[in-house]
């Protein structure tokens, strides 16, 4: 990152963009829209690498948002209690990596408070 700073400064000077905030950045609408983490919406996420990176990034954001909702938000917790864990489908390698990451969060007590057993609100399906 440090190596690229001269290029960033040059670009911001050339475009008249501020050094303190990137006004010229464009974020796709998919990354800005709220996500309703229902069982249907979670099951319909497309977590496959053969799509534009911004589309995949938006669906990964939605998947993690749904997991947070299922863990801590009242509406998500109630949905999990009523319908069972969210089913998350995707590319087998990507799902393996996602599961490794989430299991690491569990081991570090980032999913629940230490001393309480974590019951996943999701099921990884390849």
UniProtKB/TrEMBL annotation:
<keyword id="KW-0378">Hydrolase</keyword>
<feature type="domain" description="Pyrimidine/purine nucleotide 5'-monophosphate nucleosidase C-terminal">
    <location>
        <begin position="5"/>
        <end position="124"/>
    </location>
</feature>
<dbReference type="InterPro" id="IPR021826">
    <property type="entry name" value="PpnN_C"/>
</dbReference>
<dbReference type="Pfam" id="PF11892">
    <property type="entry name" value="PpnN_C"/>
</dbReference>
<keyword id="KW-0326">Glycosidase</keyword>
<protein>
    <submittedName>
        <fullName>Pyrimidine/purine nucleotide 5'-monophosphate nucleosidase</fullName>
        <ecNumber>3.2.2.-</ecNumber>
    </submittedName>
</protein>
<dbReference type="GO" id="GO:0016798">
    <property type="term" value="F:hydrolase activity, acting on glycosyl bonds"/>
</dbReference>
